[in-house]
User: Fold these one by one.
Assistant:
Number 1:
Amino acid sequence: MKYQRVRGMRDILPEDTARWREVEGVVIDVLRRYGYREIRLPLLEATEVFSRGVGEATDLVEKEMYTFDDRKGKSLSLRPEGTASCVRACIENGLLHNRTQRLWYHGPMFRYERPQKGRTREHTQIGAEVFGIPGPEVDAEILVMLARVFRELGVGSAVSLEINSLGSGESRTRYREALVDYLSPRRDELDADSRRRLATNPLRILDSKVATTRDIVAGGPDLAGYLDENARARFDALCDQLDAAGVGHRVNPRLVRGLDYYTDVVFEWVTRDLGAQDAVCSGGRYDGLVERLGGRAVPGAGFGMGLDRVLLLHQALVERRYTDADVYVAVTGPHGPRAAQVAEQVREQTRLRVVQHAGLGGLRSQLKEADRSGARWAVIVGDDEVAENRVSLKALREESDQTMVDVEELLARLGPSAQSGE
RNA sequence: GUGGAUGUAGCUCAGCAGGUAGAGCCCCGGAUUGUGGAUCCGGUGGUCGUGGGUUCAAGCCCCAUCAUCCACCCCA
């Protein structure tokens, strides 16, 4: 084989795209029902949008970006996530001027990582961001909405919600200092990654999976204990609202997000069904980000959902038979033009998917193909039919006799099943 | 970036100790001159990931390389 896809990129084949469309359709539909508007963003940004927005010391920026210089030597990066681009676009286009925004976007993200189950270098996210609403009711709105998304997708039983609060700027800084003070004397007992993070991003040490590090951290200062009154009240209010809405959740005090812009509430929807890559959707509040990227101080909150992973769950949990056609038109002899005419009439009068047989093949093989296409009906146009100015209609998914009908009756018979079966 | 496993037909795989490739599914045709889904019969299809090396002889042994998968790491 001469050419193959670039490592970590993937082809989504016709046998899977119908399911993709269904899943994307459900998610987008829910977002629209909550009043979110679509924004379309470029795949490419100035590298600085991410290094400043996401954070210089994050793994994402440090080692996972596809970064290159353009022909004039300007550093560009394929977007590794959506929030920073979205904020940049909102500032640049004046979308945040004295008004709130509920936005969603959809598309591929790129991260230079080692591929494995549930993780590729190109993946698709649907994300949403809300700007200009400081209160916890937005955090609740987002999580209630996501619970609905998973429920309506039919994967609600496979995911669960974990939440935590990182505190707002000041309390977070105080906690960070306390944590460093506690860990520094024990530096030698930490694993290598955590030692490095002690200087760059100490909060990340909290969710280390190394057992010895976990034990050390467990004896250290407690993030929750450092929350100021505001953050504490906000988090409690959120938990109350989730309870009131019947959205199950678990407070995970070790939940720390990998991106620097998060403040206060952070959350992660996780699953046990995807091996090591257990996060399906995550997000939180990022009140300082707009300012950091050059805008006015505008509060924000949002999430990113990994559709590839959602698809894996959907595939495992939701039985579906996706078909390629509703009506398959078989034709014999020289009656191609007449068959095409009938097919067009059906398309004109219904929303059904009509495939007309093309190329060679006897009636037998045409019906075989009709069966394979998943069509519910076969329409046959041959000598006998044309002689009577009618067509034969045969139901492929139920036991019933084949009948010869004129076009008017054909349309009447197909009419009741006129919604496409896709 | 680290570790382990795997690359043979479109797909899933077999190939025993080195002797120039097999099965099932799929697809095509026939049994059924204009009738699918079941059954039976026949057929198409392979530079054995790639490049070197060892050997009279390599799918099998050696080296390199690429890719995939799983885990670490990280995240969606």
Note: Residues 14-168+228-317 of chain A form a domain with the BirA Bifunctional Protein; domain 2 fold (CATH 3.30.930.10).
Number 2:
Amino acid sequence: MTPVSARPTLATVAARAGVSPSTASLAFSGSPRVAPPTRERVLTAAAELGYAGPDPIAASLRRGRSGVIGAFVGERLLYAFRDPVAIQLLDGITEVLGAHDVGLLLLAGDTGRPSVAQIARIPLDAAIFATCGLEDDPALDLLLARGVPVVAVEGPVVDGVVLVDVDDRAGTADLARHLHGLGHRRVEIVAMPLRLDGRRGPVDAARRARAHYRDVRHRLEGVEEVFGPVPAFETASNAVDEGVHAGRVLLDVPPARRPTAVLAQSDVLAAGVLQAAAQLGLDVPGDVSVAGFDGADLHWLGATRLTTVVQPTDEKGRRAAQAAMDLVDGTRPADTVLPVALRIGTTTGPPAR
Amino acid sequence: MTPVSARPTLATVAARAGVSPSTASLAFSGSPRVAPPTRERVLTAAAELGYAGPDPIAASLRRGRSGVIGAFVGERLLYAFRDPVAIQLLDGITEVLGAHDVGLLLLAGDTGRPSVAQIARIPLDAAIFATCGLEDDPALDLLLARGVPVVAVEGPVVDGVVLVDVDDRAGTADLARHLHGLGHRRVEIVAMPLRLDGRRGPVDAARRARAHYRDVRHRLEGVEEVFGPVPAFETASNAVDEGVHAGRVLLDVPPARRPTAVLAQSDVLAAGVLQAAAQLGLDVPGDVSVAGFDGADLHWLGATRLTTVVQPTDEKGRRAAQAAMDLVDGTRPADTVLPVALRIGTTTGPPAR
DNA sequence: AGCTCCCATCGAATCGATTCGATACGCGGG
DNA sequence: CCCGCGTATCGAATCGATTCGATGGGAGCT
């Protein structure tokens, strides 16, 4: 009669243990309101029936939360995770979420399929925009319409979204001052993508006006705070080979037109520029100084210590996750701006001549 | 009277549109059984009320599935994602899941906190063991007890778990034959961790008997198929610096005792061995041949073309995801073994003398 | 011995949507 | 003119657990 395949429910277990479903529920949740012998009886009955605990879906419905928090990363995973900063950020996020037994769901901006359909179908308690700050993202609209709390790391800046930010502008300005102090006057920037349309090349005013990403904008502004207008070369993605490409474009020119310092907007791009310099037989920092941003752990740089602006990436992740947890709990944390610190390495020095 | 904050439900919308909740549900699911004008009326009412669509949690309960599939990666994210193969695998997985509007939840074997508590709380339709094949993982037991379908990539091999495998052994044997054919007789192996206990050093029989990972075992066996017993040096994690360390241990010895070829069990480790060789002033493949496994995209290798065994990592991910989807749909796909291909690069050649 | 208080357990409502079988209505054919 | 059939909509059961307020019984105190 009773089909073997039918998975037992809490009610089944309760019946076998001779208690009401409510008591069985209390027993499983470890409430002190249930007497130890009773709990024992329930647990035994469960074991006998092969019941592994309350169904998470049903519990989610009743509790009103699913225990899942979504993290949006731009592009597809394959590219997003080439970026060590993205990984470290996610690591910081999981650290906090894991401590709350909350899971992290990855939402990749898979160009092919908008993740909007996923959001409509997947139960999310909150969402973190980890590496993609688009104010006009349709996914963002949907989340807000649904009343799903949203945390944004470095943007988008929208009403009702908690912002976890880093002082990109001040950090880059510090770095720029360092280079200015060394005597550099002809510097150029290797910029991360202003939008994800695969474009690369010099950044003009029109392009800049259509920039998507706050951090990129702020890192441009920080340099200009010190040097005034500075030529910037945009890369198609934040990857080493893009840095190499940009580096060759900027450095493979007659020495008179060559910048004495290149500020890359990320350590990954800086690593590429270093490679380009090496390929062109240029000495760093003798012929050209190179600086990055992030303070990432680039094991493949070897002994070279890159001059960079260190941002607390893992702390950023932890803050974002904590903010998300707070929002789920109904409190609204304040926006945060984390400080950064200039770290001078061996890749910057006084300009030649 | 009506609190503004109360989010409208399907019933509210239905009432406003003058239809029953069932019809409203049909309208949202896009069923052809509802007349277009009616659907229109429902959608309008929803828009007016700020209703963004059916609650995913409630829908999950009724449907019996949550639209979330969990992927287990060993260690914590920060280390797991240093491995380009893991990332590519995950990318393949998301490609398929995304096409089905299913989300990928990351479960990291955060040593501190077992993910068991997460599994108990998070609604999962299926789970994929992506990079950690432990037969005795308590998480695995819990999933099976819950009746959650499980797919294992390269293990664990357990009843009721669908296996997506790669022919590690045959691939490594091919590679070994290549080296044997070149004349190598004194080869050594740089092995990936046999278990995740941070140990590194020579592998002895006792250690080997306690090996956790099938792929590691198979890659050892493939070499032995050709060369017989071969010394192996175990690394603490699959990372470049571990490869460097192992490389120095194996290569920084008197030439007479130095292996003429080093087989690393992954491209990442091989990259480390190449670095070690360079540091020691050894020519590759003049003084020592180096080979890897994976066919990974290691941008930081530069022009060096590593001899390796190419495995279809993205296809492995897609297969695993497809298997998971099939299981969710109630069909049980067969186990798979994917083929690999030897790719000869510039890092192997005949031994000196 | 009687009264009170407290602790363990229970009942019942609720979370919000989905889905199947039933119903009502309108139209065409005999 | 009536019957039958098809289509659009509706009712009600169901998914499985949680939780709050209520109840009953036993222990402690006077």
Note: Residues 19-23, 26, 33-35, 38, 58, 60-64 of chain B lie near DNA strand D (CB under 10 Å from a C1').
Number 3:
Amino acid sequence: MLLVNQIRENYDQVFAGLQKRNISDAALLLDRVIALDDLRKSTQSQRDQIQAEANTISKQIGQLMKEGKSAEAQLIRERTTEIKAQIKELDEQNAKAEEDLKALLYTIPNVPHSSVPQGRSAEDNEVVLTNGTIPTLHEGKLPHWELIKKYDIIDFDLGVKITGAGFPVYKGKGARLQRALINFFLDEAMAAGYMEVQPPILVNEDSGYGTGQLPDKEGQMYFAAADNLYLIPTAEVPITNLYRDIILNETDLPVKNVGYTPCFRREAGSWGAHVRGLNRLHQFDKVEIVQITHPDQSYAALESMSSYVQGLLQKLELPYRVLRLCGGDMGFTSALTYDMEVYSAAQERWLEVSSVSNFETYQTNRLKLRFKGEDKKTQLAHSLNGSALALPRIVASILENNQTPEGILMPKVLHSYLGFDKI
RNA sequence: AGAGAGUUGGGUGAGUGGCUGAAACCAACAGUUUGCUAAACUGUCGUACGGGUUAAACUGUACCGGGGGUUCGAAUCCCCCACUCUCUGCCA
């Protein structure tokens, strides 16, 4: 969430940022934050003063008791009754102000970076670059949901039997392709300086709040009610939360982690056209990269993450484009997001396979993720993450783009991982 | 899952109602000493929200797993919850 001081000190900038997100009552929201914070401060300060008085009296009573002057002690004690009532009342007011303030801050999204384009929807995203050649396919080309049946490598019907729609079963070369991609992505990330972590894929409530899935998006996560745990929608949640409530040394920055996990998304109500086959699933595999950086370094880190992801797509020989998301399409917690889309030649569509974002201090404020520098001062770090990469749509485009009448050719870079070069 | 024991500052660990934001030791940091290193010695050494200052200094309050209660006063007593450990059971 945003920092109140950030709102106070950069009011105009925050206001303009929220405008970019098409929030019409931004001024109202921000003024309300400041008013609530003022209220919080004043009740807090009154409470502290009275508490200080009470503490003094308590000490006096202790002293008098020790000296055996219990009559005098009794006299002072009577005054505390009144003070206690006041403290209780101020406590309640203060707690309410704090609660209201927090609830309000939860509803305010991150301030977009100055380079974020104005816009309302995906159509207003800015195409930063397009790379690679879109293949010309033979007569009788098939979309991937036909290809997987033809070659019997992914079975949706079996998944329905075992679990339900959106939980495919990968078989034979399909399963091998999954494993090859995961290993390829992990090896590449390690070579780029990311430390591999294998986190739990169920997380508690605190972690959900830490990265911003809660309180608003609980409907998107599967929930294990008996144990109060959520299945992760992305490895971002457990990996970033590794650093919750931590004060790092400045010399530890940047922290670079990579992790492979399955991801689970309920995607309630989002079924329709365009979601056939592998395009949208309830369970899918993803390798995620996360960085924790010094505030001065986070945008350089974002660019390096973007080029890193592009490098993967180039090695996989997939045509792709990079989008800078507009204010209306950007995630709630992000300050700047690049989406990478690959072209899927049979569907004749661009498919999002990665989303790389800088959250600045929006997540670290909730996470209490700070670092201590040379000057001994603690300040919030910046957090970033990106998919590198999400598997299903990569698989879809590899299958569609490389299909030939004789079979599907695998990208060269995967051959050693696969142990075969054609499906 | 059953029974028992625990949860204190970066770590170990004292502390059963006021003099405890918290002993002691270790680690860390700065300095003295030193040819260098080590040892020794001295000092610093938590976080949050306020006040204060150009910035400090200084200062108020809170925090001993989380929440609530008793009390003039709680790390200390009571209740609820979470987690950890040990034994028993189960299990990849």
Note: The two ends of chain A are 48 Å apart (CA to CA).
Number 4:
Amino acid sequence: MISMRSKYAIKALTYMARTRDKESYLIADLATAENIPKKFLEAILLTLKSQGILTSRKGPGGGYWLAKAPNTITLGSIIRAFEGDLAPVQCLSENSPGSCPECQDAATCATRLVMADVQKAISEIIDTVTLADMIERSEFERQRLSKQLDFSI
Amino acid sequence: MISMRSKYAIKALTYMARTRDKESYLIADLATAENIPKKFLEAILLTLKSQGILTSRKGPGGGYWLAKAPNTITLGSIIRAFEGDLAPVQCLSENSPGSCPECQDAATCATRLVMADVQKAISEIIDTVTLADMIERSEFERQRLSKQLDFSI
DNA sequence: CTATAGTCTATCATGTCTATAGATAAGCAG
DNA sequence: CTGCTTATCTATAGACATGATAGACTATAG
């Protein structure tokens, strides 16, 4: 299960990518628009900034905005900002290395071998999908469903 | 990250599948052999029994043993016994259904669509690999490494 | 100088995870 | 029937992560 942080981050970022008219977004407005607890969102946006996904400016006229184009922001980079690297087992973690405490022989550990495949499969999906892709996919689905409705009438 | 429960379960089951000579295994022996806290292992074996992976008998001569052949016990069934269905988001959970609390429109939710792909990718791996496969893979790796050693001498 | 808006620190409740202790129940041997 | 063996159940404790809130602090436009 991905955390609420990740989901709120996706919602806020998607909102910004969808409505590119404004040049900056206030925490309060994002919180209201996407129904996210304001104080919680604060910390989330700060994390996204530290990952180079958002930029911000203080003071009047300030706020947050996307640091990169939506088609260059991957879902993986968003999720990993909150969930860490998505290692299914400790010994496959890159940013916080170390062997699994219970493992007797990492070299021949079948669990590690299989889990490496799992990790790769996950990465291949989430590191390929971008924010732009997600908005497009959502819009496509919306239209597909409204057409289905037309037929059923 | 999969839990220690899952890892201990895999270790205990692999041990039983590897040494098929004995007709039953004592909790205490499994705990010693695989270096697992005995009391903790108790609960784990009980869960595996409730999932139909193990069978048991009390009293002298009793113990635990595999309820099925190792090539019919999937890694997925073991992991799911402890981690639940591996739904990346609430709305994709089958055994504890319900929509994600923050979701406004599940039908067009891009996160759900992508995560469904992730869930499928994970399942395709772990539901295909069996206990027998893992033992074989581990043994293969052991031999491969010892051959590599031969060359390097 | 002051209102605005992001940033930082601390705290809280709740829940899960790993692990341990102690009591209980089933089953075999004599 | 007694006693030993072995699984099973209930309860608890400590550590940590998660979701969320409160309040003080800092930068900046005008």
Note: Chain B has six helices and two strands.
